Amino acid sequence: MSESFDRPEIPATGIMSGLDEDDRRLLGDYGEFLPVHPEQLLITEGKEQDSLYFIISGTLHVHTDTKEKRTLVARVCGGETLGEVNLFDPSTASASVTAKEFSQVWKANRDDLEQFTSAYPEAAARLLTGILAEMSKRLRRMNEKLATREAEAAFQSFWS
């Protein structure tokens, strides 16, 4: 992949799928496009984090680190997002994010998105619907994983 970086366009995928081309172009003006190079840290675990990151291209790893090891939490690629929770409940990052290859990211903080919401309320409603849909899918997946683990633990304790 080329590492040249002109202002890319926000594609109509993931949370952006409900926005038309003009809305995505306008939204791009309310944040910033970032080139992220291989092994570059985008988010640092434990540091203040108040932004939404939309991955345009590339692959990033979400991970937690201890002195002993690095634990991969997730891989995120084009069309996926990071940081949605902290838009609504600002806090510190629960994990770090590192680029595994050259990536293009659009970043917007809460103020950026509030300004977009004031200027373009209908488009902002579609964006928020996309964010909430993504958060709901993640919550549902986590609930399924938890239920599976609890069922496995119950089965193990029954046979132990």
Give a quick set of tags describing it.
alpha+beta, Jelly Rolls, 4-stranded antiparallel β-sheet, 4 helices, 10 strands, globular
User: What best-fitting shape do the alpha-carbon axes yield?
Assistant: globular
Radius of gyration: 18 Å
Corresponding CATH architecture: Sandwich
- CA(first)-CA(last) distance: 52 Å
List the quaternary state of the chains: single chain
Class from helix and strand fractions: alpha+beta
Low-confidence stretches: none
Main-sheet strand order equals 1-10-4-7
Pfam families: cNMP_binding
Protein name: Cyclic nucleotide-binding domain-containing protein
InterPro entries: cNMP-bd_dom, cNMP-bd_dom_sf, Env_Response_Regulators, RmlC-like_jellyroll
Domain Cyclic nucleotide-binding: 15-134
Note down, in words, how this protein is organized.
The chain has 160 residues and is of the alpha+beta class. The chain has one domain (14-159): Sandwich (Jelly Rolls), CATH 2.60.120. Helices cover 39% and strands 29% of the residues. The protein has helices spanning 21-28, 84-88, 110-119, 121-159; strands at 32-36, 41-43, 48-49, 51-57, 59-65, 70-77, 81-82, 91-92, 96-99, 103-109. The strands form three sheets. A four-stranded antiparallel sheet has the order 1-10-4-7. It has a four-stranded antiparallel sheet with strand order 2-9-5-6, with no helix packed on it. Helix 3 crosses helix 4. The mean pLDDT is 90.
Layout: helices, strands, pairs:
Layout: H1 21-28, E1 32-36, E2 41-43, E3 48-49, E4 51-57, E5 59-65, E6 70-77, E7 81-82, H2 84-88, E8 91-92, E9 96-99, E10 103-109, H3 110-119, H4 121-159
Antiparallel strand pairs: 1-10, 2-9, 3-8, 4-7, 4-10, 5-6, 5-9
Helix pairs in contact: 3-4
Domain Cyclic nucleotide-binding: 15-134
Organism: Haloferula helveola
Protein name: Cyclic nucleotide-binding domain-containing protein
